[in-house]
Each structure stands twice: as C-alpha cells, then as structure tokens.
Structure to design on (176 residues):
C-alpha cells in the first residue's frame, strides 16, 4: 500500500550576510550539515558536509561558498536531497558557524545575517540570528526520518560559543 503522507524531498538552506567594511577582516560564515545514523541518531555524526566537501553519495552539496559575503543574493547555498539519502541515515542537523581565524566574532557583530530553509517555494524556517546574537555558531534545524521512512523538519535555533570544528562535534547533541 502506498503512503499518503508526503515527507520532505529536496531542501535548500541559504545564508546571507553583509561584507565587512573596507580594511576590516572579512566575515566568513559557513553552513554545516551533520548526518547521523538511524541506529544512533544522537551519537557521533557519520559525516559532515561543509566548505570544500560534499556527502559521499552526492545527496548533500554546498552549491555556493562565500568567504566574504560580497555579491548579490545568497552568499552560501546547500542542497539536501533527503529523499535520496540511504535508510541507514536517520537524522541531519544543519547549522552555521562563523570562522574565528582573526579573533572571536559573534552573529551580533556580522551585519544583516539571514538564513532560510525551504523546500521549493515552501519556507520551513527563516531567521536573522538575533536570538543568538552573542554566539559564534548556531544550529538552524534538524531533519529526522519518521517511522514511515519520510523526512520531517523541526526548527532548532540554538547558539553555541565554539569554533567551527568544536561546533561540528557539539551540534547534534540531544538537548532537553
């Protein structure tokens, strides 16, 4: 029998911010996706997708990567083809981290930040990080495979005070 509940298929995460003023260190924000196994959805990520990488099976791709925030439109875009992810994967957490190479920088110090998660024309969430202004990284949301095998989305804006590497290890932990 076919399933009448439609889950998520192809989702896009887009991130934008304004560049630093001339003479200041560039603002460099990165989208990060952590993929967890169905057997251990809150354990260690099976793999991460971020700048200079993609998922081994090609289902999660960073289509655009900016190191400065310059240009028109979205500065970073990640596509997640959830309907193509193998059944071995049960959870995907998406977050944003600010590169900290030139010293600690928070979302409140990066002008006009905005993130949007959408499936086609349907917006799943959008935020400007004002709720985590003192943080250097934040989760945006998580996708979880339901019992029927379809994918669902939950907003999960949580701030972290961590560099990108530490954030990647923390971002998928269970919080109560």
């Amino acid at each position: 029998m076919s399933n009448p509940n439609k889950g998520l298929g192809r989702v896009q995460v887009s991130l934008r911010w304004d560049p630093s003023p001339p003479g200041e260190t560039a603002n460099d924000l990165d989208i990060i996706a952590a993929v967890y196994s169905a057997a251990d959805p809150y354990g260690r990520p099976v793999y991460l997708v971020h700048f200079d990488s993609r998922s081994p099976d090609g289902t999660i791709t960073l289509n655009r990567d900016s190191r400065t925030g310059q240009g028109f439109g979205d500065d970073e875009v990640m596509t997640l083809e959830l309907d193509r992810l193998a059944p071995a994967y049960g959870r995907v957490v998406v977050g944003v981290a600010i590169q900290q190479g030139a010293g600690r920088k928070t979302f409140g110090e990066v002008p006009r930040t905005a993130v949007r998660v959408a499936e086609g024309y349907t917006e799943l969430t959008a935020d400007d990080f004002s709720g985590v202004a003192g943080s250097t990284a934040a989760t945006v949301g998580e996708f979880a495979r339901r019992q029927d095998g379809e994918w669902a989305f939950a907003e999960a804006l949580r701030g972290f005070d961590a560099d990108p590497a530490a954030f990647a290890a923390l971002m998928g932990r269970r919080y109560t």
